[in-house]
Amino acid sequence: MEQEVLELSRDQILTRIERGAKMRGLLYSAPELISRYREGRLDDPSAVGDLIAMTSLLPDDDPLFVRP
Amino acid sequence: MSAPSLDTLLGQVRDLSKQYLAGGTDAFGAFADLVNLLLRTTVSKGSIGVRLNAGPRPKDRMTVVGAVADENHLVSLNDNNLMRLSIILFREQYKDGHRMKVEQARYQYQCDDIGKRWIFRYDYVREPKDQHPATHLQVRGQLAETVSLHKGMLERVHFPSGRISIESVIRLLIEQFDVPPNAAPETWRRVLAESERIFEDIAHRPLSGPSA
C-alpha cells in the first residue's frame, strides 16, 4: 500500500465535522448537524454528506447515534 | 522520473483490483491506491488524490476522501477546479472469507474550496434514510423553461441515476468539462476502461465510454 491509514479519534472526527460545517456556513455542533441530517431538517443535506460520512468511523453505540 | 508505461499501469490496475475484490484486510488500501492511480493518470493536479481514514470503530470500515483540506475532502484538478470525493467502504463476511463493499460514494465537481460554487454532484447511498433516490445526480444551474421544481431550484432536484463509477465521473470531467488529462488518450482511456471493466463485470453492466 502506498499510503498510511490516518487514524482519527472521536474528538478529531467531531472537530472536523464542526469545522467543515462552519466553513460551509452551518453553525451547528456535530450532534446538532447529525440530528438535523437524520431528521431531514437540512435545506441541502448533500452539501454535508461527506461530513456526515465521517460518523461511519464511530462505533454503532456511540452517544451520537442514541436518540434521547 | 519517466511516466510508467501503459502495460505497467494496466498491470497495477489489475493487481490492485484483484486485491480489493479479494476482500482481505488490505482491501481498503488497495482500493485507495487504485483511486490514486486513476486520478494521477487522468485529472488530478497533485500526485496524491485521496487518503484513507479510520476511526475508533473496529477496522471493518474506512473512508476514502479527497486529500486536500481536512474538512472539505478535495481533489485538485488540472483545470484549477476541485472534486469533493468521499467514499465509505466496509468489509463483510462472505462465504468462507470477506468482501469489500461501498456503503456511500459522493463526487462533487466544484469551483471553490467550500463547495458553494458546485457544478454537479453524484451521490450513491446503499441504504438511504430519506425520500431521495439511492443514486442520484444534482446539477446546479437553471432550466430554460419554467416548471415547478422541488424547493424551487434545479439544484435541489435529485435525478435518479444508475450507480456511477469513479471512472465514469473522471471520464465525464475530461470528455465533457475539458479537464486536461495527465496522459495521452490512448493511455488514460485504457486505464479507466480496464478498471471500470473489472468493477462492472461484477455488476454485469457495460462501460461508460470507449476503451480506446
What does this 3D model show about the protein?
The complex is a heterodimer of chains A (68) and B (212). Chain A is mostly helical. Chain A contains three helices and one strand; from the N terminus they run E-H-H-H. Chain A has helices spanning 10-23, 30-38, 49-53; one strand spanning 5-7. The relative contact order of chain A is 0.17. Chain B has one domain (6-203). Chain B is built from four helices and eight strands, in the order ααββββββββαα. Chain B has helices spanning 6-22, 27-41, 166-177, 185-203; strands spanning 50-54, 61-66, 74-76, 82-94, 97-110, 118-125, 135-139, 159-160. In chain B, strands 1, 2, 3, 4, 5, 6, 7 and 8 form an eight-stranded antiparallel β-sheet that branches. Chain A binds chain B through residues 1-10, 13, 16, 19-20, 23-25, 38, 40, 43-47, 49-51, 53-54, 56-60, 62, and chain B through 26, 28-30, 32-33, 36, 48, 51-58, 61-63, 65, 70-73, 84-86, 88, 103-104, 106, 108, 113-116, 121, 123, 129-130, 138, 151, 155-156.
Describe the secondary structure blueprint for this structure.
The complex is a heterodimer of chains A (68) and B (212).
Chain A: E1 5-7, H1 10-23, H2 30-38, H3 49-53
Chain B: H1 6-22, H2 27-41, E1 50-54, E2 61-66, E3 74-76, E4 82-94, E5 97-110, E6 118-125, E7 135-139, E8 159-160, H3 166-177, H4 185-203
Antiparallel strand pairs in B: 1-2, 2-4, 3-4, 4-5, 5-6, 6-7, 7-8
Helix pairs in contact in B: 1-2, 1-4, 3-4
Largest interface by Cβ-Cβ < 8 Å: A-B, 35 and 44 residues
What's the shape of chain A? globular
Query: Could you list the spans of chain A in which at least 5 consecutive residues all have pLDDT below 50?
Result: none
Any idea what the radius of gyration of chain A is?
A: 13 Å
Largest sheet of chain A: none
Could you say which structural class the secondary elements and strand pairing of chain B correspond to? alpha+beta
The coarse overall form of chain B would be: globular
User: Which structural class is indicated by helix and strand composition of chain A?
Assistant: mainly alpha
What is the tally of beta strands of chain B?
A: 8
- List the total number of helices of chain A: 3
Query: DSSP strand (E) fraction of chain B?
Result: 25-35%
Count of all domains of chain B: 1
The span between the termini of chain B is 26 Å
The ordered string of helix (H) and strand (E) elements of chain B is HHEEEEEEEEHH
Q: Helix tally of chain B?
A: 4
Low-confidence runs of at least 5 consecutive residues of chain B: none
Mean pLDDT of chain A: 91
Largest sheet of chain B: 8 strands, antiparallel
What gyration radius of chain B follows from the Cα positions, in whole Å?
17 Å
